[in-house]
Design brief:
Elements (H helix, E strand, L loop, with lengths): L1 H38 L24 E2 L18 E3 L15 E4 L3 E3 L10 E3 L3 E4 L16 E3 L3 E2 L50 H11 L4 H12 L11 H14 L8 E2 L2 H13 L8 E2 L11 E3 L6 E3 L1 E7 L14 E9 L7 E8 L9 E5 L12 H4 L1 E10 L5 E10 L8 E14 L5 E13 L15 H7 L2 E2 L2 E2 L11 E7 L5 E8 L21 H11 L5 E3 L6 E3 L1 H10 L1 E12 L2 E7 L4 E4 L6 E8 L2 E9 L6 H11 L3 E8 L7 E2 L5 E4 L10 E8 L10 E8 L9 E3 L2 E3 L2 H6 L7 E2 L1 E7 L5 E10 L15 E2 L15 E2 H5 L5 E2 L116 H30 L1
Parallel strand pairs: 1-8, 2-7, 3-6, 4-5, 9-29
Antiparallel strand pairs: 10-42, 11-12, 13-14, 14-15, 15-16, 17-18, 18-19, 19-20, 21-22, 23-24, 24-27, 25-26, 27-28, 27-29, 30-31, 31-32, 32-33, 32-34, 35-36, 36-39, 36-40, 37-38, 40-41, 43-44
Helix pairs in contact: 1-13, 3-4, 3-8, 5-10
């Protein structure tokens, strides 16, 4: 029984325990729930403004959360990748968003209508993109990560971009990329790369853009910047289609365009050459040589004389000529009442090239008055008397001036025909000789002796075989055959020059020689010169187009006669690689009748890569300025297309170029801004064709001729060119026909004409023409209005019009046969005669001055009035008694203070953002504007009720257990 009771009581206690535990668990649960509601109550508010706690700056009018990128509004920053501006609703995980399309890129920077550069690739787009790069717009930016401007509502979730985002496409970015090329839509739409997508492309597809970027990646930084400039200036090129040869050429520019060059030398550029050819083709009256009546032109009577080479009397051609002149002023010297001229003369088609002395009365302009003193070097060529020995030993152009002892110091070109050299050219060197003159009793002049004849300068200025400043003959001979790494026959494209010395004295009496030369080692001829942009001039557009023409072997022009395309590209490239014309200067030492070289200077003019011939330099000093003139044939230049165009328009391509400077040895600027001074106006085979222009100062005091120089020249090209006629479509030389038409028409002296040289560095041809053979323009010189014409039809002989001719046979250019009629003749206007000044009117006699009136006597001053006596001051008033103060009012009882309001639950502080995480958002303004209270109050009451219920349940369980016991 006891045992049974024991087991029953134990069982009962167990049940009671189990029941109480259940009630306790329920109470604890309710207690925990209430406590949890108190602790976890969350404040809620609406219309919040979010601020980022990230290290990056963000501006937004949005609800935004980002996992990695930092946004910045309207900022200036720098980026190693890219910059983007977005006014967009977007989602991104480390991306920059910009666009009106949906696109994705793993590394490219997106660029909108911008000029920018990036260390990766630059893409122009109006697109919405998700990318691992950051994008910036309306900003010049650079940042180690990303910078963005957003006026955005954006939620970033795993890098997915909202396709409805809107962005700005107005971007201006400045950088130094090595791969990006900016294009100009207005000139070359194909050069604008734009990613494809939902956007509307105005230029290319994505494939084209990617191809362009890939192609540009082959260009170095210098080339990229150059192409950028060329395209922005309107170059019609597509970088997407650059050939490998073009890319290679562009990448060479930096190396050869940045090497050190002598700044004392003035470059005659490719662009100036182009302008010269254009002015010639336009027959611009500022530069155009006047027309002359062909039937008025006569052979020089003094040219009929004994030829020093053949030993026979002949009607000789006369061409390069120069006066004996004062070396300081340049004026024609007066030698015992005579003017002296030295000229190259020779029998036509006999290759006879020697110097003769001609003379006339000083100041005279009578063409028939010229006399010939004969071959200057006759009997002074050692044992060489006649025939081929003299043929191989010639004298060419130079200058001369008188010495105090009456002798003439001659500077000339000594040329020896070298048969052992590669191209069998003339070995030229600058020489000098002293000429002893004799005035005979009959008034004639003869040469008594030639003394101290010796070579003065060959271009060599050091102990080596090569010339530093100027090319030597040996240097030229050993380098001329190499092109593209192998031997090449240039057909005379490369010329050697060391000739045409011109004497000048400065105001201190120092003597200088200016001469035609070729550049030496300091700036030598080579294919590398093609890649030196300084040789081109003009803007980047011109430079790029010219470069591509020069390296394009297939570059072609249309032949005027046959209508066929002629490939000239390779010829131009060869010429550009070998062209190195220069105008040099040396200072003389020694005695005047036996000079030496004292100092060698850098060239004052260089045409490296542009032309291989700028000849017969001539300096005239006006005021304190030196004016340099030189003749040239454009077909000796490297721009075949330009000079062929001039030939097609006019029929010839000869010009005079000019520069000016205050310093004789450097700093020359091109006259007229481009160097053009004179241009030919008639075909080379006409009777009135001119060349070898030589300027001399004028002595006239007529105001019409102020600041002018006289231009002299020879007329009619050599070897009877003007006597050819058209027979069955061919140019033939018919002796019987020649005799029927007044005999041979040889080279002769042209009528001279005036050129105005303005102080501002501009020039203009004046329509004032003299007789043939005038060298001294003075007050007695007559203007010949009958020999000049305004009609091109009067500038040729009847049989010359339309005669086909080979310019190569005249000038050695190898040009095809062309029609010789100019298409745009220049019509100069004759100047109006000046009106006589009106006689001044006699001044009227002055009227006698009126007698001055006597001054009136001054009036006596009025007596001053006596001052009034001061009034007595008023007595002060007594002060009033003060009023009694009013009694103070009793203070009012203070009002009871209002009960303090419990402070709201503080907000949970924002967790710090880990690297790579999005910025957490910290909300402010905990009030709900809709209710004026927070949910925290309701949550607190609910928690208290649950705690109370749990306590009651606990007590209930404990009471029940006690009753059971």
């Amino acid at each position: 029984m006891l045992r049974n009771n024991y087991f029953g009581e134990t069982k009962t206690h167990y049940k009671l325990y189990k029941c109480g535990k259940n009630w306790a668990v329920m109470g604890i649960s309710l207690f925990s729930l209430g406590l949890g509601m108190l602790v976890t109550s969350q404040p809620v508010s609406a219309d919040v403004t979010a601020t980022s706690t990230s290290s990056s700056a963000v501006r937004t009018d949005a609800i935004s959360e980002s996992s990695s990128s930092a946004a910045k509004a309207e900022t200036t920053s720098a980026s190693s990748s890219s910059a983007v501006k977005a006014e967009t609703t977007s989602a991104s995980s480390s991306s920059a968003v910009k666009a009106e399309t949906t696109s994705a890129s793993s590394s490219s920077a997106v660029k909108a209508e911008t000029t920018s550069a990036s260390s990766s690739s630059a893409v122009k787009a109006e697109t919405t993109s998700a990318s691992s790069s950051a994008v910036k717009a309306k900003t010049t930016s650079a940042s180690s990560s990303s910078a963005a401007k957003a006026e955005t509502a954006a939620i970033t979730t795993a890098g997915v971009a909202n396709a409805d985002s809107q962005t700005s496409a107005e971007v201006t970015a400045v950088s130094t990329s090595t791969s990006q090329v900016v294009t100009n839509n207005s000139n070359n739409q194909n050069n604008t790369a734009q990613p494809a997508g939902n956007s509307t492309s105005t230029t290319q597809s994505t494939n084209q853009a990617n191809s362009q970027i890939s192609n540009q990646g082959q260009l170095n930084q210098f080339a990229t910047g150059f192409v950028n400039r060329a395209i922005s200036e309107g170059a019609n090129v597509d970088p997407n289609n650059f050939t490998q040869a073009q890319i290679d050429a562009l990448n060479k520019l930096e190396k050869y365009s940045t090497t050190k060059k002598n700044t004392d030398t003035t470059q005659f550029t490719y662009y100036q050459f182009q302008q010269t050819a254009d002015k010639l083709a336009e027959v611009d009256p500022q530069y155009a040589i006047p027309y002359f009546k062909a039937d008025q032109i006569q052979n020089l009577p003094a040219a009929t004389a004994k030829d020093g080479q053949t030993g026979k009397v002949a009607n000789m051609d006369i061409w390069d000529s120069w006066p004996v002149q004062d070396p300081t002023t340049g004026e024609i010297a007066n030698w015992n009442g005579k003017q002296l001229v030295i000229a190259m003369m020779g029998t036509p088609n006999a290759n006879s090239n020697h110097l003769y002395l001609l003379y006339n009365d000083y100041g005279g302009d009578n063409f028939a008055g010229w006399k010939n003193a004969g071959d200057i070097f006759a009997g002074y060529r050692g044992d060489k008397k006649t025939g081929l020995e003299i043929f191989d030993d010639q004298e060419w152009s130079g200058s001369a001036y008188p010495l105090d002892d009456g002798s003439i110091q001659l500077f000339y070109t000594h040329s020896k025909y070298e048969t052992k050299t590669i191209n069998h050219q003339n070995h030229q060197r600058i020489a000098t000789a002293n000429l002893k003159m004799k005035l005979n009793a009959d008034g004639t002049i003869s040469i008594a002796s030639v003394d101290n004849d010796h070579t003065l300068f060959k271009g060599k200025d050091n102990a080596s075989a090569n010339g530093t400043h100027y090319q030597t003959f040996d240097q030229w001979a050993h380098n001329v055959t190499m092109f593209d790494g192998h031997k090449e026959d240039f057909g005379g494209a490369d010329n050697f020059a060391m000739r045409d010395p011109h004497i000048v004295k400065d105001s201190q009496g120092n003597r200088y020689l200016v001469f035609e030369a070729s550049t030496g080692d300091d700036d030598y001829q080579s294919e590398d010169q093609i890649y030196d942009l300084r040789n081109y001039g003009g803007n980047a557009k011109f430079q790029l187009e010219s470069l591509f023409n020069l390296i394009n072997n297939d570059y072609s022009v249309k032949d005027k006669v046959t209508g066929k395309m002629i490939k000239i590209g390779r010829d131009m490239r060869v010429r550009a690689s070998q062209a190195n014309a220069a105008i040099g200067i040396i200072k003389l030492g020694g005695t005047e009748n036996n000079p030496t070289v004292a100092e060698v200077y850098d060239p004052i003019i260089s045409a490296v890569m542009v032309s291989d011939e700028i000849e017969r330099p001539d300096i005239v000093k006006i005021g304190d300025t030196y004016y340099l003139f030189a003749a040239s044939r454009l077909n000796r230049g490297t721009n075949d297309a330009a000079w062929r165009k001039a030939n097609d328009k006019v029929g010839d391509n000869v010009v005079t170029l000019g520069w000016y400077s205050k310093d004789l040895t450097k700093g020359f600027k091109p006259l007229n801004g481009n160097g053009v001074v004179l241009t030919s106006t008639v075909p080379a085979n006409w009777r009135t064709a001119t060349y070898s222009y030589y300027a001399v100062p004028t002595r006239s005091t007529d105001p019409r001729f102020k600041n002018t120089v006289l231009i002299t020249a020879y007329m009619t090209n050599r070897n009877r060119v003007a006597d050819y006629r058209n027979k069955d479509g061919k140019a033939v030389l018919d002796p019987d026909f020649i005799q029927e038409n007044n005999g041979e028409h040889n080279s002769t002296w042209a009528p001279s004409f005036l050129l105005r040289v303005n102080p501002d560095g501009t020039t203009r041809v004046l329509p004032y023409v003299t007789n043939q053979g005038v060298w001294d323009f003075n007050n007695a010189t007559k203007l010949n209005t009958n020999i000049m014409t305004a009609k091109a039809d009067e500038a040729y002989l009847p049989w010359e019009k339309g005669v086909p001719f080979d310019n190569g046979s005249i000038l050695g250019s190898g040009q095809d046969w062309v029609d010789s009629m100019p298409s745009d003749p220049y019509t100069p206007t004759a100047p109006t005669a000046p009106t006589a000044p009106t006689a001044p009117t006699a001044p009227t006699a002055p009227t006698a001055p009126t007698a001055p009136t006597a001054p009136t006597a001054p009036t006596a001053p009025t007596a001053p009035t006596a001052p009034t006596a001061p009034t007595a001051p008023t007595a002060p008033t007594a002060p009033t008694a003060p009023t009694a103060p009013t009694a103070p009012t009793a203070p009012t009882a203070p009002t009871a203070p209002t009960a303090p309001i419990n402070p709201s639950q503080p907000t949970t502080p924002t967790k710090p953002v880990q690297a790579g995480q999005a910025a957490a958002t910290n909300f402010v303004d905990q009030r709900l504007p809709q209710t004026g209270e927070t949910d925290q109050q309701h949550m607190t009451l609910s928690g208290l009720l649950l705690l109370a219920m749990s306590s009651l349940l606990g007590l209930f369980g404990m009471t029940k257990r006690q009753r059971k016991e």
